Amino acid sequence: MAALVARVDGGGRRQIVLANQALATLLGESVARLVGGDLTRFLPREDLSAGPLRDGAAKGGAAGDDEAENHEDDEGSGVRRLLRHDGSMAWVETRVVPVELPGEEGPLVLAYLTDVTDRHEVLDRLMRSEESFRTMFENAPVGVAISRLNADGSRTVVRANQMLADMLGVDIRTLPGSYTTAFFVDDMDESSVTARMMDLWAGRIPEVADLRRMRRSDGTLLWVRARANRIDLSDVDGPLLLALILDVTAEHEANERRRRSLATLEATLLPHDTVTVPGVRIAARYRAASTDKQIGGDWYDSIALPEGGLGLVIGDVEGHDLTAASVMGLVRSAVHAYALEGHPPSLVLERANAFLSSIGTDRLVTLGYVRLHPGSRALTAAVAGHPPPWILPRDGTAACPLQLPAGLILGALSDVRYPERTVILPPGVDLILYTDGLEDYPGAEEDRIETVMAGARDAASAGASAEDVADAIVSSATPFDDVAVLVVRLDSADRLHQ
Asked: Do the bridges between strand 2-8 and strand 221-231 make them parallel or antiparallel, or are there none, so unpaired?
C-alpha cells in the first residue's frame, strides 16, 4: 500500500517527510525525489483547495476545519486525483490521520493511498455514455436499481433490472415506486444509512458499500453486497442513486463455515495461559466477531522477562482472513522473542516493523508493548498506531489513558524510530490493554471508550476481581470486530514488599 508522512504548514505547503516505494511506483518517481518535496506538485491545480491530503492535519488542530468537514468523512478519507510524473492522472482512495514522529516537528499527517484508477474510469465511462449505461443496466449479471433520494432521506425505486426482480422473486413491474427499506432486513441503523446516502449525494464520500440481508417474496433471506454511487440521468428528475446488488449468500455461508474452522486455528495462535509474576494478576480475554467476518488478527501476550519484569503485548493485524491470522502468528512470535532479549519497548517495535517489512506482506499491524516492573511499579511503553493502555484506579477516581507519544503503524514504512515513555504507576490501579474493536465500529459514539472504562472502573472499585473486570469490558463490546483485552492488576505496595 502506498503511504507517506507529510508536514503541513500554515501556508498550505505539504512537505513529504517519509514515503515508501509503493508510492514512488504509483507516481512514477523515486523515493529520493519524493522525500523533501512538496506534495502539491502532484495535485491538479483545480484540486489544490480541497481534499484530505490538504486538510488531514485539521483534526490535529491546523487551520481548515470547515473545509475539511466538506470533503472528508470522520476518518479523513476520500477519493482524489494525483498527477503522475508522465502527466497521466491516478485516482486514489486516501485515508489520512494525524501522526507524531520522534525528531519531526508537526503538524504531521500519515496518508495511505489505494489506487482505484481502473474502477473510477470504468464507472466514468458508463456514466458519460447513456447508451453504454442502458446496456449495462439491462444485461448486468448483478441486480441493479436506480432510486430517487427523497427529502426525508428515504429512497424510492425508479428503475430496476430483471436480475434484481429474479433475486427477490417478484414481478419487475412491482419494483418502481417501492421504498428500498421494503427489501432489506432491518439489521442496520436506518438513520446511519440515510446519513451516508445524503453524504454520498452531496459528494462528501465517493460511494456506500455494505454487506446486508434482503428478504425474498417467499420469506427466505439473501446475503448481498450492495454498492451505491451517485448518478445523473437526462430523462429522470431528482437526486438519483445507482445501486449494484450482488447475491453472495453461498459465499457468505461458505465463509461462515470457514470462519468457524479458522477460529480454531486462531485459538491455537493465542497463548492459553498468562504468565505468573509475583505481585501481579493478569486476566486475558479474546472474543471473535460474530458477524460474517472470517478470522481476525487481534492478539495479546504476556512475557516473564529475564530481569524479573513483565512484558505485555497487544496487537492487531489488518484484515479478517487466513493471511491476517498467519501474519499475526509470525509477528507475535517475533515480538515475544525481541522482548525476551531484553530490548526496551521502542526497540521491540522498531525490530517488529523491520521484521514485518522483511516477510513480504502488505498487511499493516498496530502494536503496543509495555515493560512493567511490579516492585517499583515502573512502566515503560510504546505504541505503533495502537490505542494506549488505560490506567484504572480502584478507588473510584477517574480512569485515564496513558499519555504516550504516537508511533507509526507497523508496515507503513520500513525505517521508523519509535518513541517510548516511562512512568511510575500509582498504587491500587489496574492497567488495561485492548484492541480497537472495543471502540471502533459503525455508529459508535465518539467517547465510547471513556464510557467502557468508566464502567470497568466502577466494577473494580466495587471489589470486582481482575477476571470480572475483563469480562465486563469484553461484554460491553459489539459484535462488529474482534476484541482482545488484558487486565493487569498490581498488588498493593505493602503486599509487594512482604
From this structure: unpaired
Q: Rounded CA gap, 135 and 273, in Å?
A: 60
* Residues 400, 391 contacting (CB under 8 angstroms): yes
More confident site: 18 or 492: 18
The mean pLDDT of 232-259, rounded to a whole number, is 81
Cα-based distances in Å from 281 to 231, 277, 310: 58, 8, 11
What Rg, from alpha-carbon coordinates, does the chain have? Answer: 25
pLDDT digits (tens, 9 = 90+) for 110-126: 888 888 887 666 666 65
- Residue 403: CB atoms within 10 A of its CB come to 9
Residues in the chain, how many? Answer: 498
Average pLDDT over residues 390-397: 92
Torsion of CA 122, 203, 160, 226, to 10 degrees: 80
Instruction: Please give the Cα distance from 176 to 148 (Å, whole number).
Output: 10
Which three-class secondary structure state does DSSP give residue 91? Answer: strand
CA 139 to chain CA mean position, Å: 36
Domains and CATH numbers, the chain: 2-115 (3.30.450.20), 120-247 (3.30.450.20), 255-496 (3.60.40.10)
Q: How far apart are CA 390 and CA 367, in angstroms?
A: 15
Taken in order 24, 30, 31, 37, the sign of the CA dihedral is negative
Q: What are the C-alpha distances in Å from 127 to residues 17, 133, 225?
A: 38, 6, 21
For the entire predicted model, the pTM comes to: 0.57
DSSP state of 387: P
- Note the pLDDT tens digit of each residue in 158-197: 999 999 999 999 999 999 999 988 888 866 778 888 888 8
Q: What is the pLDDT of residue 123?
A: 62
For residue 377, give the C-alpha cell: 511499579
Q: Is the pLDDT of residue 390 over 70?
A: yes
Distance, in Å, from the CA atom of 403 to the CA atom of 457, rounded to the nearest integer, reads 18
